[in-house]
UniProtKB/TrEMBL annotation:
It comes from Thioalkalivibrio sulfidiphilus (strain HL-EbGR7). Pfam families: Phage_P2_GpE. This is P2 GpE family protein. InterPro entries: P2_GpE (IPR009493).
Length: 42
């Protein structure tokens, strides 16, 4: 949840109302956006 909130600036209240599967989908999108913007660390 913290990754999603940090990248997309969403409040914890909004995230708490989501299913775990939806949060995991958004986490994947957040990771992709972060890596696109700042480059993946390998």
């Amino acid at each position: 949840m913290a990754d999603v909130a940090f990248v997309f600036h969403w409040s914890p209240d909004w995230l708490m109302g989501r299913a775990a599967s939806e949060i995991l989908e958004w986490r994947d999108k957040a990771l992709a956006r972060w890596n696109h913007a700042y480059g993946a660390k390998e």
